[in-house]
């Protein structure tokens, strides 16, 4: 097994991930976060669940 060391600064995200809201999902996410409520993201493959979470992070 070959161990490699990567510098964290090599992988810094300099540009915010692109996300186009289609409803009130951002406000719903922020309300759930503010009230410390769990959130379930549900949808078909490729619908943007991961991109949405990257945008909100």
Furnish the topology, listing elements before pairings.
Elements: H1 25-34, H2 49-56
How would you characterize this protein structure?
The chain has helices at residues 25-34, 49-56. With 57 residues, the protein is an all-alpha fold. The chain has a domain at 23-57. The mean pLDDT is 88.
Give the mean pLDDT.
88
The value of Rg in angstroms is: 16 Å
Count up the helices: 2
Helix vs. strand class: mainly alpha
Q: Note the gap between the termini.
A: 33 Å
What coarse outline follows from CA principal-axis ratios? elongated
What letter string, H or E per element, gives the SSE order?
HH
Strand content: under 5%
User: Largest sheet at a glance?
Assistant: none
Number of strands: 0
- Outline the low-pLDDT stretches: none
Percentage of residues in helical conformation: 25-40%
Defining traits:
single chain; elongated; 57 residues; 2 helices; mainly alpha
Give a short overview:
With 57 residues, this protein is mostly helical.
